[in-house]
Design brief:
β7 and β8 form a beta hairpin. This protein is of the alpha+beta class and about 325 residues long. The termini are far apart. It is globular, with a radius of gyration of 20 Å. The protein has two domains: about 190 residues, Fructose-1,6-Bisphosphatase, Chain A, domain 1 (2-Layer Sandwich); about 120 residues, D-Maltodextrin-Binding Protein, domain 2. About 45% of the residues are buried. Strands 2-1-3-4-5-6-7-8 form an eight-stranded mixed β-sheet, sandwiched between helices. Strands 10-9-11-15-13 form a five-stranded mixed β-sheet, with helices on both faces. The chain has ten helices and 15 strands. The structure holds 2,5-anhydro-1,6-di-O-phosphono-D-glucitol and manganese (II) ion (2 copies). One manganese (II) ion binds next to β3.
Length: about 325
């Protein structure tokens, strides 16, 4: 049997990939892994806490007010970043404004993290896969001062690392620091992530398409023509593609990354600028897709080139196998 590689061993062994590496980014990735383990553990008890352990007046056994899991996950990641000391500020889906950490230690840190603590919220209560998505940048404000909005509003091309955690049939952490994409599966019995998916490459083409077809009447003619193509025998497989839509972007993306497919959420009248958020959903997954050989656009331009103007900015999102995204865009 070949030797197993833990996430920690992998992080240390790849640290030399960065010029002048100081270990800060390595420690930050370890902080993310710690928070992911805490959240994974909380999620595995979700039905019990809601329906059995916490039945009395919405309080848990410690007498704390029960909170929605996406708020619990948000707090777990913020705590890991604040305690870890490598991050000067964060922005997340659960906070209207970014947070600048106040300790002197944090203000001397070099990184900011933008994240979606729990993606796929509508699936939490029905025991379907959900995830966490994160994006890491070097700050542009001076070290030793509080983090600023400018630190948060950097284009996706400036990401130094990005990734996601999928809490599925197993918990997997997938990330890239710009040298390819690797995936690590959690062994819950010992609380350790092991390298399970080295150097992930997205197939150039695929046979899965993921789109909320309830919105079909609102799609533009180019997209409708593409979906008709997916459902026809005219594609390279000679039979219709399979429709797969979980409603958790992370889970849909992960399937398409491994097996080959496309996820599309265009702008529609109900979401005129798109449904998904540029900074903590689209940019990090676009970074992973490109690192794996895939493509991510808003239907017209590359996601990573879109200049951010606000924290919770929404965009249309086409992401997946390169040839599929190009065809869906009408190229
Ligand atoms: P979140 O739960 O973080 O708000 O994100 C939900 C997103 C995404 O995960 C999913 O693919 C999409 O919203 C589903 O939207 P529809 O229900 O409109 O299909
Ligand atoms: Mn989300
Ligand atoms: Mn969310």
């Amino acid at each position: 049997m070949s030797k197993l590689t833990t996430l920690h061993e992998f992080i240390v062994s790849t640290q030399q990939d960065f010029p002048f590496a100081t270990g800060e980014l390595s420690r930050l990735l370890s902080d993310i892994a710690l928070a992911a383990k805490i959240v994974s553990n909380d999620l595995r008890k979700a039905g019990l806490v809601d329906h059995i352990l916490g039945a009395q007046g919405g309080q848990n056994v410690q007498g704390e007010e029960q909170q929605k899991l996406d708020v619990v996950a948000d707090a777990a990641f913020i705590r890991a970043f604040e305690n870890g000391g490598e991050v000067c500020g964060i922005a997340s889906e659960e906070n209207d404004n970014f947070l600048a950490f106040t300790s002197a230690n944090a203000q001397n840190a070099n990184y900011v993290v933008l994240f979606d603590p729990l993606d796929g919220s509508s699936n939490i209560d029905v025991n379907v896969s959900i995830g966490t998505i994160f994006s890491i940048y070097r700050r542009v404000s001076p070290v030793g001062t509080p983090a600023t909005l400018e630190d948060m509003l950097q284009p996706g091309t400036q990401q130094v690392a990005a990734g996601y955690v999928l809490y599925g049939s197993s918990t997997i952490l997938v990330y890239s620091t710009g040298n390819g994409v690797n995936g690590f599966t959690l062994d819950p019995s010992i609380g350790e992530f092991f390298l399970s998916h080295p150097d992930i490459k997205m197939p150039e083409n695929g046979r899965y398409y993921s789109v909320n077809e309830g919105n079909l009447q609102d799609f533009d003619p180019t997209l409708r023509a593409y979906l008709a193509y997916c459902q026809s025998n005219d594609n390279q497989t000679g039979k219709p593609y399979s429709g797969r839509y979980i409603g958790s972007l992370v889970a849909d993306f992960h399937r398409n990354l491994i097996k080959g497919g496309i996820y599309i959420y265009p702008a529609v009248p109900a979401a005129p600028k798109g449904r998904l958020r540029l900074l903590y959903e689209c940019n990090p997954l676009a970074f992973i897709a490109e690192q794996a050989g895939g493509l991510a656009t808003d239907g017209k331009q590359r996601i990573l080139d879109i200049p951010p103007t606000e924290l919770h900015q929404r965009v249309g999102f086409y992401i997946g196998a390169k040839l599929m995204v190009e065809k869906a865009m009408g190229l």
